[in-house]
Amino acid sequence: MREILHVQGGQCGNQIGSKFWEVICDEHGIDPSGRFNTDGKSSENQLERINVYYNEASGGRYVPRAVLMDLEPGTMDSIRSGPYGQIFRPDNFVFGQSGAGNNWAKGHYTEGAELIDVVLDVVRKEAENCDCLQGGEHFKVKSSQFYLSYNL
């Protein structure tokens, strides 16, 4: 089994990541509660590679292997209250309280520096739960340019 660890950060990265999870859930037949949809529209083939992006939890729930981070709580609150907000592991939401106010130095040296150990700990825990971590993907915005990094 090969697993991918997904990390999304910042307001735009989390908004794009949230939509990404909606699409992935739809492709795999996962409903907003994290369960495989057995309404007749889904097929068993959708479960074939589900372990690439999801961990199977108790009760047949599928939980995204994702870490969501931001320097302020607003985006996290929006994701949690969104249609697929309840499928994420609550411990994997990592956020600060004040944000950086579009100040790179504040985000890098103060607010971000305070969160980095917590983020790395959550990423480490997710990676340790994998049988064979294939790689990771990261959604974020830097200098007004969106990019997705994928490492093997």
Automatic annotation (TrEMBL):
<dbReference type="InterPro" id="IPR000217">
    <property type="entry name" value="Tubulin"/>
</dbReference>
<dbReference type="InterPro" id="IPR002453">
    <property type="entry name" value="Beta_tubulin"/>
</dbReference>
<keyword id="KW-0460">Magnesium</keyword>
<keyword id="KW-0342">GTP-binding</keyword>
<comment type="similarity">
    <text>Belongs to the tubulin family.</text>
</comment>
<dbReference type="GO" id="GO:0003924">
    <property type="term" value="F:GTPase activity"/>
</dbReference>
<dbReference type="GO" id="GO:0005200">
    <property type="term" value="F:structural constituent of cytoskeleton"/>
</dbReference>
<keyword id="KW-0493">Microtubule</keyword>
<keyword id="KW-0547">Nucleotide-binding</keyword>
<keyword id="KW-0206">Cytoskeleton</keyword>
<dbReference type="InterPro" id="IPR036525">
    <property type="entry name" value="Tubulin/FtsZ_GTPase_sf"/>
</dbReference>
<keyword id="KW-0963">Cytoplasm</keyword>
<dbReference type="GO" id="GO:0005525">
    <property type="term" value="F:GTP binding"/>
</dbReference>
<dbReference type="InterPro" id="IPR013838">
    <property type="entry name" value="Beta-tubulin_BS"/>
</dbReference>
<dbReference type="InterPro" id="IPR003008">
    <property type="entry name" value="Tubulin_FtsZ_GTPase"/>
</dbReference>
<dbReference type="GO" id="GO:0007017">
    <property type="term" value="P:microtubule-based process"/>
</dbReference>
<comment type="function">
    <text>Tubulin is the major constituent of microtubules, a cylinder consisting of laterally associated linear protofilaments composed of alpha- and beta-tubulin heterodimers. Microtubules grow by the addition of GTP-tubulin dimers to the microtubule end, where a stabilizing cap forms. Below the cap, tubulin dimers are in GDP-bound state, owing to GTPase activity of alpha-tubulin.</text>
</comment>
<protein>
    <submittedName>
        <fullName>Tubulin beta-1 chain</fullName>
    </submittedName>
</protein>
<dbReference type="Pfam" id="PF00091">
    <property type="entry name" value="Tubulin"/>
</dbReference>
<feature type="domain" description="Tubulin/FtsZ GTPase">
    <location>
        <begin position="3"/>
        <end position="135"/>
    </location>
</feature>
<dbReference type="GO" id="GO:0005874">
    <property type="term" value="C:microtubule"/>
</dbReference>
